[in-house]
Amino acid sequence: MKKLIILFFLAIYGLAGFAQEADKIVGIWWNEEKTSKIEIEKKDGKFIGTIVYMIPEKYVNGEAPKDDKNPEEKLRERPLVGVHILDGFVYNSENKEWKEGKIYDPKSGKTYDCYAWFENNDLLKLKGFVAGIRWMGKSSEWYRTTL
């Protein structure tokens, strides 16, 4: 009975460690060019990212840039601030990466498969790719910050 109780507590401890590791991605991140801040949060068990800030130099006549490259014509007039650019990421503890996600590139209006991993606690690397070929993609580095 003692062993069973010990195993139970070890399992609970292990699950807590897994959750902490998975949630490390949550927070505010500068994009690589340091022109936008993206907030990554957990929603319904998956991680999503939303543009929450753009540097004032990007504003035109006091308005945030529009999503003018979006393939859906009706979305081209929406401001980029508030747009979800990351969606559906799940944590893979074996590889220590977030996978099965999508990343939207507002510069091109295209959406790519994507995965992410840490180089250190404040440097998040993302790689967008197509056709399931992970090594044929484009990488980006995001830097932890505050709002």
Please write out the topology.
Blueprint: H1 2-22, E1 27-30, E2 36-43, E3 46-54, E4 84-92, E5 97-105, E6 110-120, E7 123-129, E8 137-145
Structural description of this entry:
It is a single chain. The protein has 147 residues and is mainly beta. It has one domain: Beta Barrel (Lipocalin), CATH 2.40.128.520. The chain has an 8-stranded antiparallel β-barrel. A hairpin with a 7-residue loop joins strand 7 and strand 8. The N terminus is likely disordered.
Count every beta strand, where a strand is a DSSP E run of 2 or more residues.
8
Second-tier CATH architecture: Beta Barrel
Which series of helices and strands comes N to C? HEEEEEEEE
CATH topology label = Lipocalin
Strand order across the biggest sheet?
Answer: 1-2-3-4-5-6-7-8
Work out the helicity level.
Answer: 10-25%
Structural class: mainly beta
* CATH class identity: Mainly Beta
Radius of gyration, in Å, reads: 18 Å
Shape: globular
Number of domains: 1
